[in-house]
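User: Some background: our group keeps a shared notebook of sequences we're curious about, and every so often someone picks one and asks for a predicted structure to add to the entry. Today it's my turn. The entry only has the sequence so far, pasted here. Could you supply the structure so I can complete it?
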Amino acid sequence: MLLIENIRKTFNAGTVNEVKALQGVSLRIDNGDFVCVLGTNGSGKSTMLNAVAGTFLVDEGTILLDGIDITKWGEHKRARYIGRVFQNPFSGTAPNMSIQENLALAVKRGKKRGLGWGLPRTLTQDFRKMVKPLQMGLEERLENPIGKLSGGQRQALTLLMATALKPNLLLLDEHTAALDPKTAAKVIDLTQKVISKDHLTTLMVTHSMQQAVNLGNRIIMMHHGKIAYDFKDDDKKRLKVNDLLTLFDELRQKDSIDPAVAVLLESYYI
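Assistant: Of course. Here's the predicted structure to add to the notebook entry:
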């Protein structure tokens, strides 16, 4: 379970470039929840994900994972419990290392390491079984550098690496945005299968309203560093893409109204 309480983050505070990226965000995600996060550029959705991952420390507020306060933990320490897949298919892996070497790093994450063979035969066999369901022929190419793979192949492997140890929390940061539609559909299908199989608690940032409608049990829409809408279960199931478009338009219209005019309108209708 992830509990975010009133987190705030300001970048370049006190300068002309000051950005209040998170403005009192509070959110509870129960075990097994699959939450899709929507929002325009600058809405704070990826900033919230980075705050949870530990990319930076928040200015205020607390972050708890399964009852443990991780607010002051660094990114490396959180990585023992949090799996993450980035937008760029070339992030999250070591391009000059082989497929099996990358997988070995993933399954040993957070564990003590001693002297011995880095890749025993039994582990290689496990890796073949792990990648075969991808139906990409990678089980016969485990010694190939991962940097030589296509974006879709690499993103599929990154997803396997992020979930190999069944993390307490899975973070997906627009992980299909850089892929062509056909490849993105394959990665999304794999994503859904992996999450369902292991009942992973998941927070997925996406620009695709169709993905948000089709996946998970909850949709959060962010705006100006705050959660503007939160739809769960049956309310979420009833949402269509057009409904989300309408909500985005409403938020844009609110932004276009001059604050002084907004006060006058509010006093007129009260």
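Suggested note for the entry: Residues 261-270 have pLDDT under 50 and may be disordered. Residues 181-198 form the longest helix (18 residues).
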